[in-house]
Amino acid sequence: MNKKIITTTNAPAPIGPYNQAVLTGNMLYTSGQIAIDPKTGELIEGSIEEETKQVMENIKGILDEVGITFENVIKTSIFLSDMNQFAKVNAIYGTYFNEVTAPARETVEVANLPKFVNVEISVIAIVE
């Protein structure tokens, strides 16, 4: 098995028994990212748009670490504490992707998320 642990200071450090991402073969699997500022370790508490932007920037930091971009993402999973926030999250999320080549995605409302955040996103990407 070829399993490489990916870590970067451009995404929050793990707060449990997991890693920011795992690379196996040419597939990158990220852990769910929430709106923690990797520089301060503090949770971004503002609008859903601000949370989503921080989440996407955390994902970008992981993608950058392995030399890829959002174009390499083939699947995303979005978890929301309130589906009524979907349009706002989608508006920010959409700025990170080309609509023509956007990845497959699911969006799910959940009862709760770590640290009681409003949004958590993970991705699967191809590393070329």
TrEMBL record:
Q: Kindly give the InterPro entries that the UniProt entry links to this protein.
A: RidA, RutC-like_sf, YjgF/YER057c/UK114
Listed Gene3D superfamilies: RutC-like
Pfam families (UniProt xref): Ribonuc_L-PSP (PF01042)
The family line of this record is: Belongs to the RutC family.
Classification via NCBIfam families:
Rid family detoxifying hydrolase
Name of this protein: Reactive intermediate/imine deaminase
**Source organism of this protein record:** Neptunitalea lumnitzerae
